[in-house]
Design a protein that fits this description.
Helix content is 27%, strand content 31%. The chain is an alpha+beta fold. The strands form six sheets. Strands 20, 21, 23, 25, 26, 27 and 29 form a seven-stranded mixed beta sheet that branches. It has a six-stranded mixed beta sheet with strand order 10-9-12-17-14-15, with no helix packed on it. The longest helix has 27 residues. 46% of the residues are buried. Bound molecules: CU-O-CU linkage and copper (II) ion. Copper (II) ion binds next to loops. InterPro entries: Cu-oxidase-like_N, Cu-oxidase_C, Cu-oxidase_fam, Cu_oxidase_Cu_BS, Cupredoxin. This is Multicopper oxidase family protein. Keywords: Copper, Membrane, Metal-binding, Oxidoreductase, Transmembrane, Transmembrane helix.
Length: 580
């Protein structure tokens, strides 16, 4: 079982346990003896089963096992201790006498669940106390409602504990945390002088109607096409792109995803430039010194902007193309999977490079059928010693790129994306769903680690929780318990070797993306990367995953560091890397 599925199982069991206790309590209050006993026994078993899932999570290296042990386990234990012993007695006697204990157990389980889902990491003493106060208050109310008579001492003690927990808990939760420096609105530096442009492009953003999947689709497009024009260059070129906004009311910018341009050219509105409003323009200029497959997209209202079509391909080649070199930017436009299927015969013996790009917010699965192939590069960085693969799929995270290379065989070859043939040299029928998936961490040949000591370390815990710092409370995607713009920036000095640990406590995948730098993957879930060095700008952090990555701080500025599920980024999962 993966940590993700263990987590899901644990969650389901916790919900069942809470529902069982509450249902049992209600049934016994209504004197429905068999139902009450049945639900109570079920809840008891479910609560005990959590001991198994929590232990399994701890053994799988789940980073937050301790928190389950500290919050969920004691509340479960209290539930079992209070309700369990009363069950045999109630089986013969007055079933109503166990109503309050069963409800108490239900409140305890529910509050543990609420702490897990709403509050998240890090769990503070204040939240723990509030949870206890909530359980006691709900129990007291049930007591009153059912007209049962607890002894005076019991009710006084319970009242005392509840009030104390409430007061202390509220105090601890409301006390202001240290205010992070919010890194917005600083001075934008002028474009770095990089010399006379050798490649010039103009991109005009506008609302447009484009053909997709055989119908007219309302889109936001660069130069009236989705994807926008493919920008290409040769290493050493000076690329100049003039961005104009005709009528995109939410503003537009260009971010060169994976291209480590100077900060002033990075295209993050409010951080490296102001958004380009309708009627305005902005000129980007940078030297193309990274070879490989990249893409560009708007970073203004990025979730809707990219989804509506404001993206395109950026490819920098080491030399003029030899053989076949095609880009396959995958995107979902108004429910239509792009690109539309294409068939282009290739003569046997010709070298082929397929540049796969995932411009969506979720992972896609790519499978190349009909030929052995190698993964030559990921995220624009060449792999060392990639071996031939056959009948193997690759998973590309949101924002990520894989270059697949092969020599065209005499028989047809087809690329499938999520089971759909997207690019082929002829008809191929293959079922690729059962193919194994490549693990890049063990692919290719390793080389000596470039760094052995680190000047700085950061930990990012990706999670979901209530964000109370804005004007309206929201259920945000959080990093270390806070949501943008309240996440403290990571501060580094030029030249630092920075190591960061990134942990996913939530139930969904977070494709992580740091601007302006490529990170070297050190390990995932405690297992050291043993294959080719991997220098990535986008990687999937799955539920339960713990990644260790490192980079050299060699590109000064203020950089976005965020989840590339762009809806998550807009719902808080974005922070900044800042040079002191
Ligand atoms: Cu491709 Cu900040 O994003
Ligand atoms: Cu995310």
């Amino acid at each position: 079982m993966t940590t993700g599925s263990l987590l899901a199982a644990d969650l389901v069991i916790a919900v069942l346990a809470a529902a069982g206790w509450l249902g049992g309590g209600a049934a016994s209050a209504a004197r429905r003896r068999p139902l009450a006993l049945g639900l109570a026994v079920f809840a008891l078993l479910a609560t005990l089963a959590r001991a198994v899932t929590i232990t399994a999570l701890a053994r799988a290296g789940w980073w937050f096992a301790a928190e389950k042990v500290v919050i969920a386990a004691p509340l479960s234990l209290a539930a079992v201790a209070v309700a369990g012993p009363r069950l045999p007695r109630a089986a013969g006697g007055d079933i109503r006498s166990v109503a309050v204990p069963l409800l108490f157990a239900g409140y305890a389980q529910s509050s543990a669940l609420l702490v897990t889902l709403l509050h998240g990491y890090p769990v503070s003493a204040g939240v723990g106390l509030l949870a206890v106060a909530g359980v006691l208050a709900a129990t007291a109310l049930s007591w009153l409602a059912l007209g049962a008579r607890p002894s005076r001492t019991v009710s006084r003690a319970a009242l005392g504990v509840a009030v104390a927990a409430l007061v202390t808990g509220t105090g601890l939760v409301v006390a202001p945390a240290a205010a992070p420096g919010v890194p917005h609105g600083h001075d934008y530096r002028d474009a770095r002088t990089v010399g006379e442009p050798t490649r010039r492009f103009t991109l005009t953003a506008a609302t447009a109607t484009v053909r997709a999947g055989g119908r007219d689709v309302a889109a936001w497009a660069f130069n009236a096409q989705v994807p926008g024009p493919e920008l290409t260059g040769t290493v050493g070129d000076v690329i100049e792109v003039t961005l104009r906004n005709r009528d995109i009311a939410r503003g537009v910018t260009l971010h060169w995803h994976g291209y480590d341009v100077p900060n002033s050219q990075d295209g993050v509105p409010g951080v490296t430039q102001a958004a380009v409003r309708p009627g305005q323009e902005f000129v980007y200029r940078f030297r193309a010194d990274q070879v490989g497959t990249y893409w560009y997209h708007t970073h203004s209202a990025s979730d809707v902007g990219v989804r509506m079509g404001l993206y395109g391909v950026l490819v920098v080649r080491p030399a003029p193309v030899t053989g076949v070199d095609v880009t396959v930017p995958v995107h979902t436009l108004a429910g239509v999977a792009l690109p539309e299927p294409r068939t282009e015969p290739v003569e046997a013996g010709v070298p082929v490079r397929l540049r796969l790009i995932n411009t969506d917010s979720t992972t896609h699965r790519y499978a190349l059928a009909g030929t052995p192939f190698r993964v030559a590069a990921i995220d624009g960085s060449d792999l060392r010693g990639p071996t031939p693969l056959v009948d193997t799929a690759v998973l590309i995270p949101a924002g990520g790129r894989y270059d697949l290379v092969f020599t065209a065989p005499a028989t047809p070859v087809a690329l499938f994306v999520d089971g759909r043939a997207v690019h082929s040299t002829g008809p191929v029928s293959a079922t690729t769903a059962a193919w194994p998936v490549l693990d890049p961490l063990t692919y290719g040949v390793s080389s000596a680690a470039p760094w052995s000591r680190f000047d700085r370390r950061f930990t990012l815990v990706l999670d979901r929780g209530l964000d109370l710092h804005g004007l309206l409370p929201r259920y945000a995607h959080t990093v270390n318990g806070a949501a943008d713009p309240d996440i403290p920036p990571q501060v580094v000095r030029l030249g630092d070797v920075v190591r960061f640990t990134i942990v996913n406590r939530s139930q969904v995948v977070h494709p992580w993306h740091l601007h302006g730098h490529h990170v070297l993957v050190l390990s995932r879930n405690g297992r050291t990367a043993t294959g080719s060095p991997l220098r990535w700008d986008s990687f999937d952090v799955r539920p339960g995953d713990v990644w260790e990555v490192a980079f050299r701080a060699d590109n000064p500025g203020m950089w976005a560091n965020h989840c590339h599920n762009l809806a998550h980024a807009e719902a808080g999962m974005m922070l900044h890397l800042m040079y002191s």
